[in-house]
Design a protein that fits this description.
single chain; 276 residues; mainly beta; six-stranded mixed beta sheet; 5 helices; 12 strands; 13% helix; 34% strand; globular
């Protein structure tokens, strides 16, 4: 690996990688809790929730979409281990304390990864020469010191006929206009739509004050049991000035709709990014 080239790429450039093969691989089983981080980091203390940024309007409510799976693709841990050891080490160093991460492979089996830490949002992409992945290159968008906020949500199902029933909207001032983002790729709307309304609001609100075009990236694993389906899902939204992300696990009983899912853990993060 060209160390100087790596350092140049990881010096804080805010560049969005090409979107390819965004849906993840097989879902044979949910990762154990010890598999949460690629390094030996342990989730740190949760920071207190900060004041919502941007307009006071109601963020757009998205509907859940399809989550197709491909059993031929490796899970995130196996994909992570396909990256060279020095690339993994450099990525973890640049990200800082790991908040969430995933790795996947493209259709040509070349691995790529995303790691969000308290020091930066890091992406690792293959570099192609002659039509083949020759090496990997990392990019980091630095987290602005003191801007990181982490928050847990209980994700309780909406109650029929209650405040969370039909016609519910994401949190916001009554009568306020609906504030919409342009998610790239558009399929992200269906992924975001699986989350409870307060989580959707938390993830979208920081972007309302600036450009509404937002890059979306995600990963999930699904386990199908006779009476229910388990889902492990990660989603990251970012621009050159903000990042929000969520890691969550849920159980959906057979025959139930996604709004009736039981969420076992939902942890969200958001931070400001330092422009180059």
């Amino acid at each position: 690996m060209d160390e100087q080239a790596w350092e140049r790429e990881f010096a804080g450039r805010d560049r969005t990688p090409e979107h390819r093969d965004r849906l993840p691989g097989p879902r044979e089983q949910l990762p154990a809790a010890r598999d949460r981080l690629p390094g030996d980091g342990v989730p740190g203390d949760r920071l207190p929730a900060g004041r919502d940024e941007g307009p006071a309007g109601v963020t757009q409510v998205h509907e859940p979409g399809a989550l197709p799976v491909d059993p031929e693709f490796p899970l995130r841990q196996a994909a992570w281990e396909l990256l060279p050891q020095e690339v993994r080490a450099k990525t973890l160093e640049k990200a800082g304390r790991t908040l969430l991460w995933w790795a996947r492979v493209y259709t040509d089996r070349a691995p790529f990864a995303l790691v969000l830490g308290d020091r930066g949002l890091c992406r690792v992409e293959p570099v192609y020469r002659g039509g083949r992945a020759a090496e990997h290159r990392g990019e980091r968008a630095r987290v602005e010191p003191g801007s990181l906020v982490s928050r847990s949500f209980d994700g309780r199902p909406r109650q029929p006929g209650g405040a969370g029933g039909a016609g519910a909207a994401a949190p916001g001032r009554p009568g306020a206009p609906v504030e919409r983002l342009v998610l790239d790729p558009p399929d992200a709307q269906g992924v975001l739509g699986h989350f409870p309304l307060d989580v959707q609001d938390f993830l979208q609100r920081p972007f309302l004050a600036g450009p509404r075009a937002v890059t979306a990236e995600w990963y999930y694993e699904e386990t199908v049991e006779p009476g229910h389906t388990d889902l492990f899902v990660l989603l990251c939204l970012s621009t050159d000035r903000h990042v929000t992300a969520v890691e969550a696990r849920r159980t959906l009983d057979r025959g139930e709709t996604p709004d009736r899912a039981r969420w076992h853990a939902i942890t969200c993060h958001r931070a400001r990014l330092t422009p180059r």
